[in-house]
Write a structure and sequence with these properties.
GO molecular function, one term: DNA binding
Radius of gyration: 24 Å
Strand order of the largest sheet: 2-1-3-4-5-11
Structural class: alpha/beta
CATH superfamily of the largest domain: Response regulator
Order of helices and strands: HHHHEHEHEHEEHEHEHEHEEHEE
Number of domains: 3
CATH architecture of the largest domain: 3-Layer(aba) Sandwich
CATH topology of the largest domain: Rossmann fold
Shape: elongated
Distance between the termini: 81 Å
Largest sheet: 6 strands, parallel
Protein name: LacI family DNA-binding transcriptional regulator
Number of helices: 12
Helix content: 40-55%
Number of strands: 12
Organism: Qipengyuania qiaonensis
Pfam family, one: Peripla_BP_3
Keywords: DNA-binding, Transcription, Transcription regulation
CATH class of the largest domain: Alpha Beta
């Protein structure tokens, strides 16, 4: 009677077939980049060839980990904002890729805070090994409180002196200065900032915007229009503003979404861009190149930022000391300014 060979049942069985250690097999199957790519590919191929499947639940239980990272988007100030927002989409893609490459799943949560316990619910749930918060909204105090007791947490947002939370983001003050300085260099003197100043990142962009204007003697007092991030709400607010005020000759928007709403409202009033009004956005989301006219904007390197978030989080999970990352913004010149 012919005896059938049994496939590998354990990591040790697969390690013997592959001629490597059990640790190498485990890390290869988890996609850990510590293992050389060629070795990872060979181990995965052997596992598929022999029909080997790792018991992920048992593995996580043994390692005392969940295999998931919580990614939270707190919408304290923008309750109508959706995950389809272009900036969220541009950041979540590379963030998910970076987590997957390190063998982790992403547990996504869009939160409208109703009390101060929204972040505690995730960190204390037992469902995740760490947390990434995308944006501080108006929830800085809550994030600070949790950061004081919970180590594996990093935040996409603005850094401030004395702050406990570890952040990744661009130099928002420099970005605001960069945008305003470009408009002032074109001879524009009636500038406006469109964006909600209670958001820490937007407040910093507004500070830089104001700093640049204060250095130009003949510049007019800048206008501030606090608008929401959702497309329709920002468009309505800008259209109403333009119907009752003389248009500025230059606009710095706190985000590309707000800038796109400004392009639409200005165009409907027959104003030429950039001849009558120049517009600069912030973020450089993918569709910024496809607006009419193409949008001049301040670029944040979100792909680098996403990978920095993951790297800092894993270092904190390992008990290492880390510092916040502040990236330099870049002015991307297109037609609108």
């Amino acid at each position: 009677m012919l005896k059938l060979n049994k496939g590998p049942n354990t990591l040790a069985d697969l390690a013997r077939i592959a001629g490597v250690s059990v640790t190498t097999v485990s890390r290869s199957l988890a996609g850990n980049p510590v293992i050389a790519k060629s070795t990872r590919q060979r181990v995965v191929a052997l596992a598929r060839e022999h029909g080997f499947k790792i018991n992920q639940s048992a593995r996580n239980l043994r390692l005392k980990r969940t295999g998931a990272i919580g990614v939270i988007l707190p919408l304290g100030h923008e309750q109508q904002q959706h995950l389809s927002d272009p900036f969220f989409m541009s950041l979540l893609g590379p963030l998910a890729d970076a987590l997957s490459e390190n063998g982790y799943d992403l547990l996504l949560s869009r939160v409208i805070p109703s009390d101060e316990g929204w972040l505690d619910e995730m960190t204390d749930s037992g469902k995740v090994d760490g947390v990434i918060v995308i944006g501080q909204s108006n929830q800085t105090d809550v994030i600070e409180k949790v950061s004081a007791r919970y180590r594996p947490i990093v935040v996409w947002g603005a850094a401030a002196p004395g702050m406990l939370q570890t952040t990744v983001g661009s130099d928002n003050i420099a970005g605001g200065r960069l945008a305003a300085s470009h408009l002032l260099a074109q001879g524009r003197r009636r500038l406006a900032f469109f964006g909600a100043s209670e958001v820490p990142e937007f407040a910093a962009r507004l500070d830089g915007f104001r700093q640049a204007i204060s250095e130009v003697a003949d510049a007019k007092e800048p206008l501030l229009l606090p608008v929401h991030l959702t497309t329709e709400e920002s468009y309505s607010a800008i259209a109403e503003f333009l119907s009752g005020h003389p248009p500025p000759d230059g606009i710095v928007a706190a985000s590309d979404v707000i800038a796109m709403s400004a392009l639409r409202a200005l165009g409907e009033r027959g104003l030429r861009i950039p001849h009558d009004v120049a517009v600069i956005g912030y973020d450089d989301v993918l569709i910024a190149t496809h607006t009419n006219p193409p949008l001049t904007t301040i670029r944040q390197d979100v792909e680098r930022g996403a990978r920095s978030l993951v790297e800092l989080l894993f270092q904190r999970m390992e008990g290492k000391e880390v510092s916040s990352v502040m990236m330099e913004p870049e002015l991307v010149l297109r037609v609108s300014a």
